Amino acid sequence: QVQMVESGGGSVQAGGSLRLACVASGDTNRRNCMGWFRQAPGKEREGVASISTVRTETFYTEAVKGRFTISHDNAKNTVYLQMNNLKPEDTAMYYCAAGAIWSARTGCAAIRGWGQGTQVTVSS
Fold this sequence. Notes:
The protein is mostly beta strands. The protein is 0% helix and 60% strand. The protein contains no helices and eleven strands. The strands form two sheets. Strands 2, 4, 5, 6, 9, 10 and 11 form a seven-stranded mixed beta sheet that branches. It has a four-stranded antiparallel beta sheet with strand order 1-3-8-7, with no helix packed on it.
């Protein structure tokens, strides 16, 4: 099991920025990717951004392209999500995750550990 501890959520006005961070620990074997997911009330959980730990590749859902940037600090075993120009539709609970399968089409899959979630609220 992989433990993920995330932080950085909060409330911001439209157009503002937030930076999420997540530290991974525990069983990190077969952790081939890390990613960020979000879930809003009444909606399914969706992948927002993912990064491969073995390839120089990233994945972003169309809704956040050009606004969000995912990065990984190998030395600190931490994944970040820089969110700029936030929109009200970005409001959701954001979860970080470590996965065993990387796909250029689906991003990070076969999740082995989830963060506790951090709330992001964007007001109009």
